[in-house]
Design brief:
Layout (H helix, E strand, L loop, with lengths): L18 E6 L3 H16 L3 E2 L9 E6 L4 H19 L5 E6 H6 L1 H6 L5 E3 L7 H11 L3 E3 L20 E5 L1 E2 L10 H5 L3 E2 L2 H13 L4 E5 L15 H9 L7 E5 L8 H9 L6 E3 L7 H7 L5 H14 L4 E8 L6 H14 L3 E6 L17 H24 L5 E6 L7 H4 L2 E5 L4 E4 L13 E5 L2 E2 L4 E3 L8 E3 L2 H12 L26
Parallel strand pairs: 1-2, 1-3, 3-4, 4-5, 5-6, 7-10, 10-11, 12-13, 13-14, 17-20
Antiparallel strand pairs: 8-9, 15-16, 15-18, 16-17, 18-21, 19-20
Helix pairs in contact: 8-9, 9-11, 12-13
Length: about 500
């Protein structure tokens, strides 16, 4: 049950509706949690602040604790809001997520103007904590050590009409020495398959045609209820949901990745030919120090099996540079594996020492200059591979799910944007006389050009271009009509929301 936030003004009983803003840092799990936070706040009577306006009446930071710069970014933003809050009676600031779970009282000590601090296990408490802070005129700190309610039972305001996140588990049972997530999100908790499929069916009924299954380690799904093949079965079950056109998942762990999952991907038509497989390091010594439970040979073997059954699969990864004790030989091993893996893109990170992790206590912490130089070599290599792999796409015909937001040069190029089945970003033009697609519709186009981080399609004639209007496009029309936008028609029905599949930058 959600507490309502009712604010009154002694001098004016017709106070305007209060606004909120959720600022998100970190992974897809945080993005999904932020959709829950937005849903909770809207269920409590708040409305989302329009972009570009002044800070909202309620500003919520959903934080990440994986890297040190997340701390710095949070406290910098809180510092800027302190001065705003001095001139805005009734303004409230809340901090949640992994950093709140970790730092707890530290946040209130460093930023005493914060009204609410809540953790990863009690997202649903935010409205009540805000009301309690207002009523008592003092900051509220509530950090639970275990999950209070599975997040999917909470109201949600999705960022996208055509796409949705679906959590299949929360928490993690791994003990990677660099990672603080298990201590912040707890041991893995798995949802029952029927609950997951019911949520997906509800999303599809609302116009969604693409879902991404989320978990800290999706391919260990089912361990809690004793079925080690549960994830592959879940993927196959997704293939039976009418109207669901695209299914993705993130993130698996190479140590637990099994052939039955690869077979399910290859044999289920709506499972997309895209896989995010975190490498972290190509050095077996470093992988051992990281407690990653696999070695480079196993990792490359998984990629070979995926490409054997799914030849056009695009594989992405995570890599950490500069882990304690990493030698030049170790780093070269990473470069060798990256060269062999031919990733379509990579999220590359400089190792960040996180208090509370075993790696923070390891000897041979590397100098910043060494880490930076290796990072630059790695990204240069991966950028070259990205460009080469994208160049191989020229001449292929692909189906693109159109998104609302186009590229930065859209006004100049007159191109729209979307994602191919393998998740590559495609900027495309509509040939003269062609139908303009709505966000959520699908277009089939030839790839005519490529850059390192996107593909280009400029069809030369109508014969090279087709549009398939979709239920998601109809949902976008409805959402525009409901918000006084400029929809293009479509049928009536359930209300949607603004678009844009949440994405992460290529490197951090």
């Amino acid at each position: 049950m959600t507490a309502s936030i009712v604010f009154t003004d002694d001098q004016d009983s017709s106070v305007a509706t209060r606004t909120y803003e959720v600022r998100t840092y970190g992974c897809q799990m945080n993005v999904h949690d932020s959709e829950r936070l937005s849903g909770l706040l809207e269920a409590s009577g708040l409305v989302e602040q329009e972009p570009g306006d002044e800070p909202a009446d309620v500003v919520v930071f959903n934080t990440c604790a994986v890297r040190e710069n997340a701390d710095n970014k949070l406290y910098g933003n809180l510092g800027m809001l302190a001065h705003v809050k001095e001139t805005r009676p009734g303004m409230q600031i809340a901090v949640g997520g992994c950093l709140a779970q970790k730092d707890r009282e530290t946040i209130l000590r460093k930023a005493p103007w914060v009204d609410v601090v809540f953790g990863t296990h009690n997202v649903g408490s935010l409205p009540a904590l805000l009301e309690r802070a207002r009523h008592n005129n003092e900051a509220q700190l509530e950090i639970l050590e275990s999950l209070e309610v599975f997040p999917s039972t909470l109201p949600t305001k999705r960022d996208s009409v055509h796409s949705g996140w679906v959590s299949i588990s929360v928490g993690c049972n791994n003990t990677c020495t660099f990672c603080i997530v298990p201590s912040l999100r707890g041991k893995e908790r798995d949802r029952r398959p029927a609950d997951i499929l019911t949520e997906i069916e509800a999303l599809v009924a609302d116009g969604v045609i693409e879902v991404t299954l989320l978990g800290q380690n999706v391919n260990s799904y089912g361990i809690e209820f004793g079925d080690r093949l549960a994830f592959g079965k879940l993927l196959r079950a997704c293939g039976q949901i009418e109207g669901l056109e695209r299914v993705r998942f993130t993130s698996p762990h190479p140590a637990a990745f099994t052939d039955d999952v690869i077979e399910a991907m290859a044999e289920t038509s709506n499972i997309m030919p895209q896989l995010h497989m975190p490498l972290q390091s190509g050095s077996d010594k470093v992988l051992k120090d990281m407690r990653r439970s696999y070695r480079s040979k196993k990792f490359l073997g998984i990629l070979d099996k995926v490409r054997e059954l799914i030849p056009h699969a695009a594989i992405t990864t995570d890599i950490i540079v500069g882990f304690p004790g990493e030698t030049e030989e170790d780093f070269q091993a990473t470069l060798d594996v990256v060269e062999a893996s031919r990733f379509s893109s990579a999220y590359t990170f400089q190792y960040s020492k996180r208090p509370g992790t075993p790696a923070a206590e390891l000897p041979d912490q590397l100098p910043k200059a060494v880490v930076q130089e290796r990072f630059e070599r790695l990204t240069a290599l991966q950028d070259r591979i990205c460009a080469e792999e994208n160049a191989l796409q020229v001449g292929r015909t692909v189906e693109v799910l159109v998104t609302e937001h186009s590229g930065r040069k859209a006004a100049e190029t007159h191109r729209l944007s979307g994602r191919a089945t393998d998740q590559r970003l495609v900027h495309f033009s509509v040939p003269a006389g062609g139908d303009t697609p709505r966000p959520g519709d699908l277009v089939t186009v030839p790839i005519t050009g490529a850059a390192a981080f996107h593909l280009v399609s400029d069809p030369s004639s109508l014969e090279e271009y087709s549009v398939r209007r979709s239920r998601a496009g109809d949902a976008w029309d409805r959402s525009q009509a409901d918000s006084c936008g400029t929809g293009t028609g479509g049928d009536s029905g359930t209300r949607g929301v603004s678009l844009g599949m949440p994405t992460l930058p290529i490197r951090k």
